[in-house]
């Protein structure tokens, strides 16, 4: 009887654990910087956390983001000016496309 209770308890714990993590759906942010060689880096800020993305031919991508509101910071090469895009919303399982980000001189 004791073994049966332990086995049922473990089964319940594993079942609840597998259900708890299946509801997490992640989104992303993409964008294109023009001119393509004007930026040296792109960062994503959420509260106290900061992520960096690689830029390839002006295109950047952030993936595996939780639903929320973020700030995108583009660090520009001289003579261009940095760009900040605030209040970028990410929804569950959706990728937010920022389109073309034109850096000014």
TrEMBL record:
This is Carboxypeptidase regulatory-like domain-containing protein.
């Amino acid at each position: 009887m004791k073994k049966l209770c332990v086995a049922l308890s473990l089964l319940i714990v594993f079942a609840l654990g597998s259900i708890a993590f299946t509801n997490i759906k992640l989104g992303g942010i993409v964008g294109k910087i023009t001119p393509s060689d004007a930026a040296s880096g792109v960062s994503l800020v959420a509260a106290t956390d900061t992520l960096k993305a690689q830029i390839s031919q002006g295109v950047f991508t952030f993936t595996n983001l939780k639903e929320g509101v973020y700030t995108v910071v583009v660090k520009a090469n001289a003579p261009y000016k940095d760009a900040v895009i605030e209040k970028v919303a990410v929804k569950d399982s959706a990728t937010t496309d920022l389109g073309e980000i034109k850096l000014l001189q």
